[in-house]
Automatic annotation (TrEMBL):
One of its GO terms (molecular function) is glycogen phosphorylase activity. SUPFAM superfamilies: UDP-Glycosyltransferase/glycogen phosphorylase (SSF53756). Belongs to the glycogen phosphorylase family. The lineage of its organism: Archaea, Methanobacteriati, Methanobacteriota, Stenosarchaea group, Methanomicrobia. Pfam families: Phosphorylase. It comes from the Archaea. This is Alpha-glucan family phosphorylase. InterPro entries: Agluc_phsphrylas (IPR011834), Glyco_trans_35 (IPR000811), Glycogen/Maltodextrin_Phosph (IPR052182). It comes from Methanosarcina flavescens. GO terms for biological process: carbohydrate metabolic process.
């Protein structure tokens, strides 16, 4: 890293992300993409990588989730005051939207590391005196509003972000686009470089997180022409972003020299989505210190000093006595069960095998797969007591996602006398940290190949929680059957219809719970502790954001 500091002396990598997850008190994230961005920044600070991050302030947050007794999701704004955490800068810039000058101010948050490193984060804010009322609202809601609102946000983030960095005096070596939301920064760079795509490509890095065509932002050119009224600009967008509709990811692909997916499998899927592009793979990781529970931190500090900044030291976890490993896990589990019982009154048991599922509530994540056969769940519960904890938000416009929550609540009611099930509302970073450290088994059941990466299982592994997952995303790389956890369903390259795959997944889900997982947990504790150790030594040591950021440095940033 010292060599990088020398090469980039006085220069920065500008990391653009629509959402960044720093803490539950700063609700500028919706899910995995934003939490990953936060971990990226934390590792950059730890490793003294010269990074500056740019995002939107999202004054009213994503939303605060309230659930009624039937599982109906009610959304409330989650307003917060940036002044509590950040410094308002004096500098302002403006962008043209509908031929109006929209002024942008900036808040500075310094992400400081225990190692002494610091990454400045610039939060862009259009709630500026002199802007029209509708323009002052552009940076209010993360992923709120319609296509018009989203495109306005992307103009502010991409074009406004480049202008703000220049105004603040940053010298930028590379622009790293975390997903396509910020790709309009390349339009601004083209205008600054004589519309020479070769020069711009040298400046740009693009990380895609979306393995399905429908997930990439696309805008009708009628809307583009209305908001960006400069004909030359619109012609550039058509040239590099698609002739029929403006595809933000295609625009980024055409104007970046380095492009990557977030797992090896996702890189392959992305090449099929966008044939002809060279798409590398840098598998995601998580910030080890942030996502390790206090109980395991204390243990690692004692036996593996320096682990927080060298997570690869976790490979030596066998040097920690099994009794202390189990005690750390038990304390984390007790803290979670106490929280669940305080919130829900469901009366969960410390000793029962506790299964966790927490992520965005949307159709492809299949939160209800484990509830497909309630009689089979009862049978498993007779073999050894199980209990389930769910959490997650559905996007306000995702009716199918909201229905999934209601279905979980129905199953909770049906199984009330047999199996303890809880759904914890308003999933955020604090609750995530409790869940990934406090359950015994982490469940992940996406429809293949829609999981680009998934990082919650990596967080679980740092806490010795065992993974049980469909073979998709990162788990293809982390899975060794019966050693680091278990897989359900077909092998990664096995060609089955969606119906055949689902049948195979359900068969494995229930059979492995009944014949392998539950008996091991209750009857072979030494074997279970071996899985805990393997999760840490074989998964956590590698699937961390320090390793990820070192790869970005050597492959993308130099």
């Amino acid at each position: 890293m010292d060599d990088l500091q020398g090469v980039l002396k006085g220069q920065k990598i500008a990391y653009f992300s629509m959402e960044i997850g720093l803490s539950s008190e700063i609700p500028t994230y919706a899910g995995g993409l934003g939490v990953l961005a936060g971990d990226t920044i934390r590792s950059a600070a730890d490793l003294n990588i010269p990074l500056v991050a740019v995002t939107l302030v999202s004054n009213k947050g994503y939303f605060r989730q309230i659930l009624d007794p039937f599982g109906n999701q009610i959304e409330h704004t989650e307003e917060w005051n940036p002044a509590r955490f950040m410094t308002l800068l004096a500098e302002e810039v403006s962008v043209k939207i509908q031929n109006r000058d929209v002024k942008i101010k900036a808040w500075l948050y310094n992400c400081k590391s225990l190692t002494g490193g610091c990454v400045p984060i610039i939060f862009l804010d259009t709630d500026v005196e002199g802007n029209e009322w509708e323009d002052r609202r552009i940076t209010d809601f993360l992923y709120g509003g319609d296509q018009r609102y989203r495109l306005k946000q992307e103009i502010v983030l991409g074009i406004g972000g480049v202008r703000m960095l220049e105004t603040l005096g940053f010298t930028v070596r590379k622009y790293h686009m975390n997903e396509g939301h910020s790709s309009l920064l390349a339009l601004e760079l083209l205008k600054r470089n004589g519309t020479d795509p070769v020069k711009v490509k040298e400046l740009c890095i693009f990380t895609t997180h979306t393995p399905v065509e429908a997930g990439h932002d696309k805008f009708d050119y009628g809307l583009v022409e209305e908001l960006i009224q400069d004909k030359n600009d619109v012609d550039i967008l058509r040239r590099f972003g698609g002739a029929d509709r403006f595809n933000t990811s295609l625009f980024a692909l055409n104007l970046s020299n380095y492009i990557n997916g977030v797992t090896k499998r996702h890189s392959r899927v992305s090449k099929e989505l966008f044939p002809g592009y060279q798409i590398q793979a840098i598998t995601n990781g998580i910030h080890s210190y942030t996502w390790t529970s206090p109980y395991f931190r204390k243990l690692y500090d004692r036996y593996l000093p320096g682990w927080a900044n060298e997570p690869e030291l976790l490979v030596r976890v066998d040097g920690i006595p099994d009794s202390e490993i189990w005690e750390a896990h038990w304390n984390a589990k007790k803290a979670l069960i106490d929280e669940v019982n305080r919130r829900t009154g469901v009366g969960m048991d410390y000793k029962a095998l506790t299964i966790g599922f927490a992520r965005r509530m949307t159709a492809y994540k299949r939160a209800t797969l484990v509830l497909s056969d309630l009689d089979m769940l009862r049978k498993i519960n007779q073999r050894g007591k199980i209990q389930l904890i769910f959490a997650g938000k559905a996007h306000p416009r995702d009716e199918a996602g909201k229905q999934i929550i209601r279905e979980i609540f129905k199953s909770m009611e049906i199984l009330r006398e047999d199996i303890k099930i809880a759904f914890l509302e308003n999933y955020n970073m604090d609750l995530a940290a409790k869940m990934v450290s406090g359950v015994d088994l982490w469940l992940n059941t996406p429809t293949r190949p829609y999981e680009a990466s998934g990082t919650s299982g990596m967080k679980a592994a740092h806490n010795g929680v065992v993974n049980f997952s469909v073979l998709d995303g990162w788990w293809i790389e982390g899975w060794i059957e019966g050693v680091t956890g278990w897989a359900m369903g077909p092998q990664p390259d096995e060609k089955l219809s969606e119906e055949e795959a689902r049948a195979a997944e359900l068969s494995d889900l229930y059979n492995k719970l009944y014949y392998i997982i539950v008996p091991m947990y209750y009857e072979r504790r030494d074997d279970w502790v071996r899985l805990i150790n393997n999760s840490i030594a074989m998964i956590a040591y590698y699937f961390n954001s320090h390793r990820m950021m070192r790869r970005y440095v050597t492959h993308a940033y130099l």
